[in-house]
């Protein structure tokens, strides 16, 4: 159903559109105002000049969508995925972006302060944000400000956290396996039970940590000798704590890290 008038009629006649597959749809100039489009897949769709005023796009996929000149006033885009989307010239007045995702290829209107909008992506200001248990796998968060953010139980495996500020962040039981933490600041971060297996910690700072009890550092890369030694000399009550998920102790994981680096 690629014909815009036919598709628009169908959309407006259906009350339950949750999760509908609309990939690549041609909806340029369409009036979609007020529609509930929760979790709808609009990746690659042409929505240029579309009226999406007050539309509910929570959790929708807009990856690679053309939203140039679209009207998104008062729309709800919380948790929507906008990677590679083009929003040039769109009206974003009053739109909500909490927990939505963007990347370096997302094109925003020149006057929109997307870094402080609550959206998640490169250089985003997420200081103190509540992101407990968030699914951030493989997301681009380089140079983002996550100072004091609540990331307990969050899945950051494979995420790009190069240069990110994670000072005083709560990373308890977070999954950071394979994440790139090059030059990241983890000063004062809470790492109890965190899974850091295979993470790249080259140039990262890990001073003043409250506790590393149960943290798994198996196979980490780039951990310099001084930092590794400091971690290994933490109190026994910390480094002998068992990680219930990875089934190893912090002490043993640091020994594995040593063998990887040698």
What's a quick, concise take on this entry?
This protein is low in regular secondary structure and about 260 residues long. Helix content is about 15%, strand content about 0%. It contains 4 helices and 2 strands, in the order αααββα.
Describe the structure in your own words:
This protein is mostly loops. It folds into two domains: 1-109, 3 Solenoid (Pectate Lyase C-like); 120-262, Pectate Lyase C-like (3 Solenoid), CATH 2.160.20.80. The protein is 13% helix and 2% strand. The protein is built from four helices and two strands; from the N terminus they run H-H-H-E-E-H. It has helices at residues 4-13, 225-232, 236-239, 250-261; strands at 242-243, 248-249. It has a two-stranded antiparallel ribbon. A hairpin with a 4-residue loop joins strand 1 and strand 2 (248-249). The longest helix is centred in the last third of the chain and has 12 residues, at 250-261. It is elongated and about 65 Å long. It starts with a helix and ends with a helix. Mean pLDDT is 95; it is low at 258-262.
